[in-house]
Amino acid sequence: MNVVTPQIRTAAEQALVDAVDQHLAAVPIAGRVGELRRAAAAAFATHGLPHRRVEEWKYTDLRAILREAPPLAGPLDAASEAEATFKALSVPGAKRILFVNGALARPASDLLALEGGIAALPLDSALAAGEPMADRVGALAPQRYDGPLALNTAFLGEGLVVRVAAHAKIAAPLHIANVFTKDDPATTYGRVVVLVEEGAQVTLVESFQGRDGVAYQTNSALELSVADGAHVDYVRVQEEGDAALHLGTVMLEIGRNAQFHSFTQTSGARASRVSVYGRFSGTHSHAGLRGATLLKGRQHADTTLLLDHAVGHCESRELFKTVLADESHGVFQGKIVVRPDAQKTDGRMMSRALLLGETAEMDNKPELEIFADDVQCGHGATAGELDEDLLFYLKARGIPQKEAEALLVQAFVGEAIEFVEHDALRELLIARAEAWLARRA
Amino acid sequence: MTALLEIRDLKAEVAGRQILNGLSLTVNKGEIHAIMGPNGAGKSTLSYVLAGKPGYEITGGEVLLNGEDLFAMAADERAAKGLFLAFQYPLEIPGVATLTFLRAALNAQRRKRGEEELSSPDLMKRVRELSKKLGIDPDMLRRPLNVGFSGGEKKRNETLQMALLEPLLCVLDETDSGLDIDALKVVANGVNQLRAPERGMIVITHYQRLLDYIVPDVVHVLAAGRIVETGGKDLALQLEATGYAQYQGEAA
Predict the structure, then answer these.
(1) A411 touching B, CB under 8 A?
(2) Least CB-CB distance to A396: which of B51, B95, B100?
(3) In chain B, which residue's Cα lies nearest the Cα of A392?
(4) Residue boundaries of the structural domains of chain A
(5) Closest B-chain CA to A402
(6) Candidate from A390, A392, A399 with C-beta closest to B108
(7) CATH code, domain with B119
C-alpha cells in the first residue's frame, strides 16, 4: 500500500505556487501549450520542489537550497540592456541573441528569419502567431516529474524558437547569451526550442552570466531535436554570479545517422543543477556529452544525466571533469539506459574529479541499466588529488608551485575541452578555464 | 675559486631508512663527474635530493651550489639557479603540450632571474634549432609531454630541455637506461655539445658504456651511500672488468 505523505509547502514553495497563478492570469497562452502550462502548474502545486528523499536529488536538496522565491525580473530597461550587451560572453564569429534579466533584448540581438537556412524567433511571438515550431514546446519533456522543468513550463513566456532548415550548413555559431544585471534578486525563466532538420549542421552556444553578490535565480530549459543525418555541436557556459542559483534542463532527441556533441563548462553560481535528458530515437548515431566544472569556495554544482538508448546501433561517450577547490561540492550522476531492442549499443561514461581543497567533496554516481544482451557499455569514476610526482617534475624545471598546479589543472580539464571541434570555441573555453585558475592563484 | 657544487658529508633518509651516509663531492666549473655504483647504492637518491624531491629527509651535511645553500631553496628556485636533473624516467603529462611546457619552464626561470621572457617566435626558433640537432620530429613538440613517446624520445626530450634551459649544473640520472646504441649516441652527442667552461655535469650510471660517449674527467664509485673510490676515466673501465662486488663488501 502506498501512503501519500502529506506535504507541507515551504514558504518558498507557497510563494512559487502563488506566483505561478498570477503569471497564468497575466500572460495568457492559448491552445496545447496553454494546457501544458496549466498541467505543469498543477504538478508543481502537488509535488513541489524536489528534496533529498527523491533519488535523483539526493545530493542536491533543492527544497533546502531554494528558500526564497524572488519575483520575476519585470520589464527590461535600457541601462540593463546596455550593461548586458557589454558584459555578455563574446563568441568570435557568432550570431548573438541576448536575454537580459530573462527578457529578450531585441535591438541587441541578431534575430534571424530563415536567413541562409536558420530562423530564430521570440517564443512569445511564435506562440501568438501560431508558428508550428512553437507547438514543439514540451515535446521532449521526460515522463517523470521534474521540479525545475515544471516551474519552467508553468512560467512559459520568454524564450526562443530556432529552426535550422534541412541540409543547411550554418557556419556562424548561434549564441544565446543570458545576462543578469539587477541589484536585487529576481527569478528568470527561459525556454529555448531548437529543431535542426534533416542533414543540417549547426553550432549552438548558450551562456549564463550575472552579477556577483545577488541571490538571483535562473531557470533555463532547452529542447533540442537533432533530426536524421543532422550534425549539432552544443556548448553551454555557466558563469553565473557567485550568489546565484542556476537550474538548467537540457532535453535532447537524436535521430538516425546523426552526430551530436555537447560541452558544458560550469564555474558560476552558488548552487547549480543541470539535468540532461537525452534519447536516441534513430539508429547509427553518435553522441558525445562532455563537460568541465570548476568550483571553489562553497560552491555546489550538480550535473545529472540520463541517456536513453531507445534504439540500437548507437554510440555514446560521456566525459565529465570536475575540479574542486576549497570547500566546494560537486555531483555527477549519470545513467545510461539500454532498452531491450537497443542491440549493438556502445556506451562509455567517465567522471573524473580533481580535489584541490582538503574539505572539497565529490559525489559520483554512474549507472548502467541494460536490458539488451549484445551491447558494449562501461562506466567509471575517479576522484584524486594532483599527482605529486608530476608537480615535482614541473618544479624541477623551474616552474613555481602555483603555476605548476595551474598547468596540471588546465591539463586535466583540457583533456575534456579538446573534444570541442570548433577552434574559436575551444580556445574560448580554454581561456575561460585559464582565467578561473588565474583568479584562484 | 668557488666550486660549482660542493657536497659535504651529506646524509639523507627516505621513509625512515638512511640512504646517503656522509657523501662528499666537489664539482668545479667545466668538469664532468661520473658516479657509478651498484643498484641500491643511493645514486637516484642523490639526484632527487639535489633536485629537491619531496619525501627525502636531509639528516646531515650541506650542499652549496655556487656557494649558496641548496637546501634553503625550493625545487623551482634550484632550477632557476642553474640546477638541472635529467630524469631516469621522464614523466608523462597528458594535456600539456611539449612546447607549452618548454615555454612555461624557460620563462619561469627567466622571470625568477629578473630576465625578460622570451617571445613566442624567438622560443619557437630556438626550440626548432635544438630539436633539429637532436633529431626530434617537430610534430612531437605539439604532442602532450612525453605521452606515447618511446624511451629514446623521452631521453631526447630531456636533452632538449637541458639544451634550452642552459643550466650550470646538469645531473644526468641513468640517462642510458632504456636506450639502444643509436639513441644513446644521439643523446650523448647532445650532452657533449653542452660541455662548456662554465658548466659542470654529474653523470650517474650503472654501466660504463655511456662513458664511452660522454667521457668524464673524474669517476667516483658510490656504494652504501658514500663515495668509496675516486679516480680518472680508467676507473670506469676497471669497474667494467671487476664489477662492484669488492665495494659492496666494503660498504657492509
Answers:
(1) yes
(2) B51
(3) B53
(4) 71-386, 387-441
(5) B76
(6) A399
(7) 3.40.50.300
Q: Give me the pLDDT at residue B252, please.
A: 42
Cα angle at B52 between B48 and B56, to 5 degrees? 65
Q: What is the pLDDT of residue A395?
A: 97
ipTM of the complex: 0.95
* Nearest C-alpha in B relative to A419: B95
> Measured between beta carbons, which residues in chain B are less than 8 angstroms from residue A410?
95-96
B76, A398: Cβ pair inside 8 Å? yes
Question: In angstroms, rounded to a whole number, what is the distance separating the alpha carbons of residues A417 and A355?
Answer: 19
Interface contact A427, partner B, CB < 8 A: no
A7 has pLDDT over 90: no
In this prediction, residue B249 carries a pLDDT of 60
pLDDT tens digit sequence for B69-118: 999 999 999 999 999 999 999 999 988 899 999 999 999 999 999 999 99
Cell of A107: 535591438
Domain residues for the domain of B64 are: 5-251
Q: Do A389 and B91 touch (CB under 8 A)?
A: yes
Q: What mean pLDDT is predicted for residues A415-430?
A: 94
B76: nearest CB among A395, A407, A415? A395
Task: Please say whether the beta carbons of A194 and A253 come within 8 A.
Answer: no
CB proximity A412 to B under 8 Å: yes
Tell if the CB–CB gap between B76 and A407 is shorter than 8 Å: no
Report the C-alpha gap between A85 and A303 in whole angstroms: 29
CB crowding B207-236: b at 16 or more within 10 Å, else e: ebebbebbebebbbbbbbbbbbbeeebebb
Give me the pLDDT at residue A167, please: 97
Does residue B244 have a pLDDT over 90?
A: no
Q: Which residue of chain B comes nearest to A407, CA vs CA? A: B96
Q: Which range, of A52-56, A284-288, B238-242, averages the lowest pLDDT?
A: B238-242
Cβ distance of A414 and B95 shorter than 8 Å = yes
Instruction: Give A154-179 pLDDT, tens digit per residue.
Output: 999 999 999 999 999 999 999 999 99
How many domains in chain B?
1
Establish if B112 touches chain A: CB-CB under 8 angstroms.
Answer: yes
Whether B16 contacts chain A with CB within 8 A:
no
What is the residue whose three cell numbers read 550568489? Answer: A243
Q: How much is the pLDDT for A1?
A: 45
Give the N- to C-terminal CA distance of chain A in Å, as an integer.
57
CA-closest candidate to residue A151, choices A25, A44, A249: A44
Q: Which residues of A touch B100 (CB under 8 A)?
A: 407
The type of residue at A74 is G
Nearest 5°: the CA angle A379, A382, A383 is 155
The residue type found at B65 is L
Q: Quick: pLDDT tens for B18-63.
A: 999 999 999 999 999 999 998 889 999 999 999 999 999 999 999 9
Phi, psi angle pair for A6, to nearest 5°: -65, 130
Q: What residues of A are in contact with residue B105 (Cβ under 8 Å)?
A: 394, 397-399
Tell me the backbone φ, ψ of residue A208, rounded to 5 degrees: -135, 120
Pairs across A and B, CB distance < 8 A: 82
**pLDDT above 90: residue A382:** yes
What's residue A269's pLDDT?
A: 98
Report the pLDDT value the prediction gives residue B251, as an integer from 0 to 100.
46
| Yes or no, beta carbons of B161 and A397 under 8 Å apart | yes
DSSP letters along B99-118, please? HHHHHHHHHHHHHHTTPPPP
Does B114 lie at the interface with A, CB-CB under 8 angstroms?
no
- Asked if the Cβ–Cβ distance from A407 to B104 is below 8 Å, we say yes
User: Which of A200-204, A257-261, A278-282, A399-403 is predicted with the least confidence, judged by mean pLDDT?
Assistant: A399-403
